[in-house]
Amino acid sequence: MLDKTKIGHEFPLFSTEVEKGRLRFFAEAIGERNPIYTDESAAKAAGYSAIPAPPTFMFSVDLDGPDMLPILKLLNLDIGRVLHGTQDFEYLGQIYAGDSITQKSKIADIYDKRNGALEFVVQESTYTNQNDELVGRAQQTLVYRN
Amino acid sequence: MTDISVGTEIPALKLPPITRTTLALYAGASGDHNPVHIDSDFAKKAGMPDVFAHGMLSMAYLGRMLTNWQSQAKLKRFSNRFASITHLQDVITCIGKVVELVEQDGETVARCEIQAIKATGEQTLVGEALVAI
Q1: In what order do the strands lie in the sheet with B9-14?
Q2: Is residue B85 part of a domain?
Q3: Residue B76 sits in which domain range?
Q4: pLDDT tens-digit profile of B35-55?
Q5: ipTM of the complex
Q6: Has residue B60 been placed in a domain?
Q7: How many structural domains does chain B have?
Q8: Are A50 and A130 spatial neighbours (Cβ–Cβ below 8 Å)?
Q9: CATH number of A4-18+52-145
Q10: Is residue B27 part of a domain?
Q11: Looking at chain B, which runs of residues are DSSP E strands?
């Protein structure tokens, strides 16, 4: 069983630069062809101050920390048994190419179902830009197959 | 945007079949290097038949459907659960519709039910989006 005393654990915050080239690569990988996601002038013509990160990119910010998934070490998880259960994004602003985003994350809950055959870890994160604007929040549930 | 009402369907997005290349590119671009999505040997050791798609890849497809329909600046909330695993060669289609109009913080927001489905009709992602109109 996972260590429930880790509920409330806060991961060290970190900051990451959102690079224009990374956003172009991300757009290519998901088949996004709208030029606002690759071309700064198209983004500006559409009313954005720079190339916006697509809606799910906050999850990639999570993976940019010193460890790709610090939760693995914290809860001693085998990555091959981890599945993604739910993902929830709330948008309070936009993340743009050139931003420096600070991510803060904590373990909100750990629980199990089917007598422990499946365990669930709920993680909550916030995303703040270089101007101290809270641009988004996320909540995700990981499922652990025992 | 007075043309959006309860029952309005979001234009569907049909994707090409998922390939190993799709997964390799998404792993690199997203930063999700979990080997279960890119290394068949690892996936088999983990008890899976082969590598399988990142759930977040399909969520990104749902995001494309939403931002093709309405500009991203209008997207307030976007959530889903991952209902089943997407395997190699699966063909995913994203669909959605407006189910309710709600007032939130002084603006009208369309609550949309969204899902990603396989060609068999099996749901892979089921969720909801709130879009300002």
Answers
A1: A14-17, A100-113, A118-128, A134-145, A82-91, B75-82, B123-132, B107-117, B93-104, B9-14
A2: yes
A3: 9-17+54-132
A4: 999 999 999 999 999 999 999
A5: 0.96
A6: yes
A7: 1
A8: no
A9: 3.10.129.10
A10: no
A11: 9-14, 75-82, 93-104, 107-117, 123-132
**Mutate which: A34, A62, A83, A89, vs B, most B CBs within 10 A:** A89
Q: What are phi and psi of A30, to 5 degrees?
A: -100, 5
**What secondary structure does DSSP assign to chain A, as a single string?**
---GGGTT-BPPPEEEE--HHHHHHHHHHTT---GGGT-HHHHHHTT-SSPBPPTTTHHHHHTTSSSS-HHHHHHT--GGGEEEEEEEEEESS--BTT-EEEEEEEEEEEEEEGGGTEEEEEEEEEEE-TTS-EEEEEEEEEEEE-
Interface with chain B: mutation pick from A25, A26, A28, A30, highest number of B CBs within 10 Å? A30
What average pLDDT does the segment A87-110 reach?
98
Give Cα separations from B104 to A15, A115, B117, B133 (angstroms): 31, 40, 30, 11
B58 lies in some domain: yes
State whether residue B14 sits within 8 Å of chain A by CB.
no
Q: Tell how strand B9-14 and strand B93-104 pair up.
A: antiparallel
Average pLDDT in the A91-111 region? 98
Instruction: State the CATH number of the domain containing residue B122.
Output: 3.10.129.10
Alpha-carbon distance of A24 to A36, in angstroms, equals 10
Give contacts of B 45-104 with A, CB under 8 A: 45-47, 54-57, 59-61, 63-64, 66-68, 71-73, 75-82, 85
Q: What is the pLDDT of residues A27-64, one digit of tens each?
A: 999 999 999 999 999 999 999 999 999 999 999 999 99
Tens digits of per-residue pLDDT, B83-132? 999 999 999 999 999 999 999 989 999 999 999 999 999 999 999 999 99
Q: What would the mean pLDDT of A102-124 be, rounded to a whole number?
A: 96
